[in-house]
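queue> holo job accepted (flavin-adenine dinucleotide)
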Amino acid sequence: MAGLLAARVLSDRFDTVTILERDRLPESAEHRAGVPQSHHLHTLLPRGQRILEALFPGFEADMAATSAPLAVWGLDNAFYTLGGWTPHFDSGITTHTAGRVSVEWLVRRRVAALPNVHILAEVEVNGLVAENGRVTGVRMISRATREQSTLAANLVVEAGGRRSQAPEWLQALGYDAPEETVIDAHCGYASRWYEIPADTAVANKAIAVQTRFKQGLYRGGGLLEVEGRRWVVTLLGANGDYPPTDEAGFLEFARTLGTTAIYEAIRKAKPISPIYGYRRLENRMRHYERLARRPENFIVMGDAAIALNPIYGQGMTAAGLEALELQKLLGRYNLGQLDGFAAAFQKRLPKVTADAWTMATAEDRRYPDVEGPKPDLVTRFSNRYFDWLSMAMPYDNRVTQAFFEAMCLLKPAKRAVLHPRVVFSVLRHSLFSRKQEAPAPAHLTTAELRAVR
Ligand SMILES: Cc1cc2nc3c(=O)[nH]c(=O)nc-3n(C[C@H](O)[C@H](O)[C@H](O)COP(=O)(O)OP(=O)(O)OC[C@H]3O[C@@H](n4cnc5c(N)ncnc54)[C@H](O)[C@@H]3O)c2cc1C
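queue> job finished
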């Protein structure tokens, strides 16, 4: 996604943009080896959808044409928070809910149609070519013939995802690898796809169930209706409490979340996929912005630079924000003289993704066995505040609206959840109303499930 979006914005300025992709690219919306995360629930946040619409006018109509449902946050999405279910109200925030392969396919189709963009598939990039402190191209190997070749370029953008080899490529040229910050709450996903039963009691297009630290319950999950009247269900376990990938274990794990809503929805539904597991979900920031020495004309973006625990569904939107930053910054440079551009771009990345990073890492630092720097006072206070907020959400539309705006990256988190009126509501609720977390209901009946809206 980051590579495709970068290609879209680069195509405005450069004569030719070439995308190098290791996989064979399918002719339609299909899973492929290079993106194993596509088997898991992928939320395109409203901010991400707006960015895609801005970069590819008509994109939302493209999504609608794939039968991706349109969800209104508050009306169609139910969150089970520490205080219970979020209220049923119209937040005015909408998104199409679709599988990752559909979103990527729609983007790739648009990018491939750009006259100056070329996609070379089944080639693996395995190094950089450099001269006099400047990257001048890449080395690559054909997966079909194993032939090694090089491709010259004025600017090289690495967007190879979480397993990016860019640190090794830099070392091979005599530069340091970037320092890394890793915050790992030992989270794991297990996901399965279902046909939505005709008589389902689920009225929502999305259900999300939060983990409950204080009750020692490190399990959560999500259910998302996607195109083709299917559900994708992802179970999440943190602190090493990984969800199992066998049939009975998967269902039992679903039954033991804070609410049985997801379990009740799927227990009689027809599975249409195996159960997929995923365990490398740590937050990892590779600090390219801190490099003391770097070659010119080489930048790194997307998960290759800043990978987030996907629990908040921010990765594709973060890639969109980074692409917009690339567009903006490049607009200030003459393409014949890009000296300083790489350093300036890398410095901007942690800033444009700051809210996403803070949200994902603050949450992960609550788990007892988390690896990484200890939370500072501000993080500890903000976690406490989010607990209060989460407990107030079921009783207050304004508080829920503020949470949605921050989570969807529509407003800076500070402006949304720290707005004085929101702070007042949260404090009033926490001081004078409910002080207890909603007890985890042992069982949710079909009638109750129908009532969750
Ligand atoms: C389990 C899971 C669930 C997620 N859920 C969400 C979600 O709900 N919402 C959301 O927005 N984000 C989610 N994400 C994150 C999201 O997938 C990524 O943040 C987003 O795709 C941007 O990543 P990227 O483009 O940097 O890398 P990727 O999407 O991983 O793409 C990397 C590409 O580079 C190719 N490649 C790699 N190495 C080479 C090489 N040497 N040569 C040539 N090609 C190469 C790969 O084949 C692949 O096509 C999730 C991630 C995971 C792991």
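queue> The pocket of flavin-adenine dinucleotide is lined by residues 1-3, 20-23, 34-35, 37, 40-43, 124-125, 159-161, 165, 189, 278, 302-304, 310, 313-317, 319 (CB under 6 Å).
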